[in-house]
Amino acid sequence: MASPLIESLIAQFGRLPGLGPRSARRMVLHLLRAKDTHMLTLADKLREVATHVTACLECGNLDTQSPCHICADARRDPHSICVVEELPDLWAIERSGMFKGTYHVLGGTLSALHGTGPDELKIPRLLTRLQEKNIQEVILATNATVAGQTTAHYITDQLQGLNVKTTQLAQGIPVGAELDYLDDGTLFTAFQARKGV
Amino acid sequence: MASPLIESLIAQFGRLPGLGPRSARRMVLHLLRAKDTHMLTLADKLREVATHVTACLECGNLDTQSPCHICADARRDPHSICVVEELPDLWAIERSGMFKGTYHVLGGTLSALHGTGPDELKIPRLLTRLQEKNIQEVILATNATVAGQTTAHYITDQLQGLNVKTTQLAQGIPVGAELDYLDDGTLFTAFQARKGV
Q1: Rounded to an integer, what distance in angstroms lies between the CA atom of residue B65 and that of residue B22?
Q2: How far is CA B151 from the centre of its chain?
Q3: Nearest-CA distance B184 → chain A (Å)
Q4: What is the mean pLDDT of residues B91-99?
Q5: Which one of B13, B30, B35, B45 would you mutate to disrupt binding with A, by most A Cβ within 10 Å of its Cβ?
Q6: Concatenated DSSP letters for A153-170?
Q7: Can you give the CATH number for the domain in which B41 is found?
Q8: Which residues numbered 72-101 in A keep a CB inside 8 Å of some CB on B?
Q9: Which CATH number fits the domain that encloses residue B98?
């Protein structure tokens, strides 16, 4: 066992997702060897993020400013909203560089079990944004899971009669995939959604 | 991409051993969801460890005090020194609860390639400790690797004529191992070191 203070730091690291006691110990050891460079920087950065980062009141993205740097960016199209479940989904779409509109981060999916209703997902806020600004397209980019698709379906229902083009990400065979290794559900969807060449 | 501040925190996590950009992102996301509880605690703990933890001047262990809580513990035998390569080796032996003496943390192994000589490993300091205190046994608990064994051999040479009992951890078949899965080196060593029943 290490000294009590070091043990308590190891315990803090061990609570992070995907880290067991062994890897937590390895990380703390690495940091102990780079106390002035890495360890203090990490401490400062964590404190800075914890105190300065807030949710964007517009879209739910986390940033040091609200509206966030995406909502505030004049070069982005404010008339197109991409609806995602969680922050990492937004990050993934941003990494792809495909989308130049704005976002709406739900923060989860509809779930009676977990008590997540439309209000928790800020769906009323999404509807207000649609009415306030002249939104032309809502892209539903929820996960291709049952929960994600149910949520997308619910939002589609709410958008009825609002005169907004609603689209959803295409489902099918992922780029680079081999048919032999695909699950039946994906193959089925890809067959059903087949297009003329 | 996340906001620049969050991205820089992800980069800090990504520099930790065994973490790729994906798992670093996952951890930061977890921390963002527990800003007040986990994130600030982790920041404070990191700062506390970075500022308060120092190497024990006696044995090289890291602790908030020097002599460390092991060297300062009156219930431990100060006449027995266990020589280990690195801090995690000390932690592992402490976890086993087997050893009730004191330690000497080398901080590595002898290596011409990396320029690690006897001075870097505080071997002169070990010899001074042997002469100052009435040490009865030195247990060489370096790793069973070529570098570890070379270092143990060098220390054994230095201890010649000092009238100190020098021992080394037994090598052989690990508890619970199946012969079929053992490497040849271990089997060879276990055969050579066989004992009467």
Answers
A1: 37
A2: 15
A3: 28
A4: 89
A5: B45
A6: HHHHHHHTTS--EEEE--
A7: 1.10.8.420
A8: 86-88, 91, 94-95
A9: 3.40.1360.10
Residues 111-150 of B with CB under 8 A from A: none
The tokens for A95 are 């990494």
Omega prior to A67 cis, within 30 of 0: yes
Residue A26 φ then ψ, to 5°: -65, -40
Element (H, E) at B5: helix B4-14
pLDDT of residue B193: 83
Q: Name the one residue in this structure whose structure tokens are 């600004």.
A: A133
Residues β-bridged to residue B160: none
Task: Identify which of B45, B86, B94 has the shortest CB distance to residue A9.
Answer: B45
A24 occurs within a structural domain = yes
- The sign of the CA dihedral B114, B120, B123, B126 is negative
pLDDT (tens digit per residue) in A37-94: 899 999 999 999 999 999 999 999 999 998 999 999 999 999 999 999 999 999 999 9
**What is the interface pTM, i.e. ipTM, of the complex?**
0.77
- Cβ atoms of residues B81 and B102 within 8 Å: yes
Give mean pLDDT, residues A100-110: 93
> Cα angle vertex A87, ends A81, A92, to 5°?
80
Domains of chain B: total: 2
d(CA B134, CA B116): 28
pTM over 0.80: no
